[in-house]
């Protein structure tokens, strides 16, 4: 497997960005009568549409056309997943926030990420309804469309708007309420991609949730590029092939949150 240079990474970044612009345009043009909505096992709120499956198949084909070494972790269907993070591992969330997409027609995203030998390398989050693509990585910087994003200001918890999982907050899972009440304010958005976009624009400076690999992968790349900490509260390593409960936050907010939980 040949390692990609910075110039090659930039080319891949722009290629995938164009893909997400195209898929976003198609999603915005999707009519209600074109949607087929199904329900996954386990929760009536966990829905899937024909756009989820067609987007994923399209992205898998296109990724494999530019990366013969690609291993793919994707949300829908029975695509065989890699057992390790060795080599090129791509993550796909074809519609993130499907409930928002179907019922609100806003606040949903399309997400793709590339990790090389376990290292967060490139990430893309298309905020579909505003036609914004957040993209880049540690080698090339982080951008919103063509605008380079500024590193995050290191705010503390009482200065921070914290985005949390509404379902876990209502269920009383610890320490969601503790951290939400300690922050300046908290928000519930129903989409990991939209939550990450708030962090990138510094409209929020913390995000606490349990995230599947495809929910976390792209956001982690871009968040770490901008100076956010992406860790579990107990400091355990993040396993990108399983779900993780993570806090994505400024250094100050992360340290203060860990102290609150331990106390």
TrEMBL record:
* Protein EC: 3.1.3.25
Q: Which GO terms describe its molecular function?
A: inositol monophosphate phosphatase activity
Protein name per UniProt: Inositol monophosphatase family (SuhB)
Query: How far does the signal peptide extend, from start to end residue?
Result: none
Naturally occurring in which organism (per UniProt): Fructobacillus tropaeoli
Q: Write the record's keywords in alphabetical order, separated by commas.
A: Hydrolase, Magnesium, Metal-binding
Q: What class of enzyme is it?
A: hydrolase
Family annotation (CDD domains): IMPase_like
Task: Please indicate if the UniProt record lists DNA damage as a keyword.
Answer: no
What InterPro entries does the database record attribute to this sequence? Inositol_monoP_metal-BS (IPR020583), Inositol_monophosphatase-like (IPR000760)
* Keyword Cell division listed: no
């Amino acid at each position: 497997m040949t390692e990609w240079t910075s110039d090659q990474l930039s080319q891949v970044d722009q290629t995938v960005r164009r893909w997400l612009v195209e898929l976003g345009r198609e999603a915005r043009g999707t009519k209600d009568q074109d949607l087929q909505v199904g329900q996954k096992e386990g929760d009536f709120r966990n829905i899937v549409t024909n756009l989820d499956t067609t987007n994923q198949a399209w992205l898998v084909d296109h990724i494999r056309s530019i990366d013969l070494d690609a291993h793919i972790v994707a949300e829908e269907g029975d695509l065989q997943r890699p057992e390790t993070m060795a080599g090129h591992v791509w993550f796909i969330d074809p519609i993130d926030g499907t409930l928002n997409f179907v019922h609100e027609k806003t606040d949903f995203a399309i997400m793709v990420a590339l990790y090389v030998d376990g290292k967060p390398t490139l990430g893309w989050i298309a905020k579909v309804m505003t036609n914004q693509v957040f993209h880049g990585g540690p080698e090339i910087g982080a951008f919103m469309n063509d605008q380079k994003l500024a590193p995050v200001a290191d705010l503390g918890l009482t200065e921070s708007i914290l985005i949390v999982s509404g379902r876990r907050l209502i269920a009383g899972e610890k320490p969601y309420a503790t951290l939400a009440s300690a922050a300046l304010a908290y928000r519930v958005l129903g989409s990991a991609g939209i939550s990450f976009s708030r962090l990138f624009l510094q409209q929020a400076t913390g995000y606490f949730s349990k995230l599947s690999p495809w929910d976390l992968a792209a956001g982690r790349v871009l968040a770490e590029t901008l100076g956010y900490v992406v860790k579990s509260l107990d400091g355990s390593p993040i396993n990108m092939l399983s779900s993780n409960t993570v806090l994505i936050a400024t250094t100050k907010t992360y340290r203060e949150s860990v102290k609150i939980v331990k106390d």
